[in-house]
Design brief:
Length: about 300
């Protein structure tokens, strides 16, 4: 059965307006044309959807149920139609990135991209879920991990240096020895590639038998918790640059060991590199990465 889209739309308009003449005015057709569409829909469905009560119309029980069922979908179609108008007049770029990188690194720099490329409409999709490029409409992803994703273009965003960080009211910059950290609550990012166990091993300190610990599954939450004085976090300087610049966070250890890891990677199918908008965004990313970092092609 062919779906009577026009008749369904007319029925929805009449049901909302409560009047054939008012619906006809809204649709830009005659009241007779509206009535014919309603009658055709009723014939196809085999039931009565509405009846006249003076100058207005009232829905039958079946009409009320039908209207309630289709209203949300009609609304979505209307929204989608409005949103798509003029879509081809702009270049749309969808970027997926982890919530921490989106919030701590990408967002503070995004205005420069918008100023340089006003013709590109950008959408930031902040999630840790890796993109299925065969099913999802994503142009480029900045993915957290080890860089091993066969079949995709992969390029490192540069090394990140991980250091202890805390609010200055908890401990002043350079005021603690490595062994002093065992007496503080330690904030852990459970998905981070740099963990406290490795840090203590680097400085030759055995962790306390019973740590005071606070766990987060997002680094940006661990950073915000450290800013709030909840403990000492081990996080990337790249992600904490705003907090260090403002003095909200400091490194409480005078000479922390250097733990440098590439954790963020530019990822996309190789054929996406042919698109001008992707080339433009990648060039911008490279120009704004940490000046101490180096891109590492894979």
């Amino acid at each position: 059965m062919q779906l009577p889209v026009r008749a369904i739309w007319v029925f929805h308009t009449v049901a909302k307006a409560g009047s054939v003449s008012r619906a006809a005015e809204e649709l830009g057709v005659t009241p007779s044309a509206v009535s014919q569409q309603i009658q055709a829909l009723e014939v196809q469905l085999g039931l009565s959807l509405m009846h006249k009560t003076g100058r207005r119309v009232a829905l039958t029980e079946a009409g009320e149920r039908y209207f309630a069922t289709i209203s949300d979908e009609i609304g979505r179609i209307g929204e989608a139609t409005s949103a798509i108008r003029g879509y081809r007049s702009v270049t749309s770029l969808t970027v997926r990135a982890t919530p921490t990188l989106s919030n701590k690194w990408l967002l503070p720099r995004l205005q420069t991209f918008l100023d340089l490329h006003p013709d590109i409409e950008i959408r930031i999709d902040g999630t840790n879920e890796p993109t299925d490029f065969n099913r999802e409409i994503v142009d480029v992803e900045i993915r957290h991990g080890d860089g091993r994703w066969p079949g995709l273009f992969v390029e490192g965003m540069g090394e990140e240096t991980f250091v202890p960080a805390c609010a200055p009211q908890l401990a002043a910059a350079g005021s603690l020895m490595p062994e002093d950290l065992t007496r503080h609550r330690l904030i852990h990012s459970v998905k981070s590639q740099a963990q406290w166990g490795r840090w203590f091993s680097e400085v030759g300190v055995l962790p306390a038998e019973r740590w005071r610990r606070l766990f987060f599954d997002r680094s940006h939450m661990a950073i915000d918790a450290a800013c709030g004085g909840m403990g000492i976090a081990l996080e990337s300087m790249t992600m904490m640059e705003r907090e260090f610049a403002s003095g909200t966070l400091v490194c409480p250890v005078a000479e922390p060991p250097r733990i440098a890891i590439v954790t963020q990677w530019i990822v996309c199918p190789r054929d996406h590199l042919r698109h001008k908008k992707v080339q433009t965004f990648l060039e911008w990313l490279r120009s704004h990465r940490d000046s101490s970092g180096t891109l590492l092609p894979r």
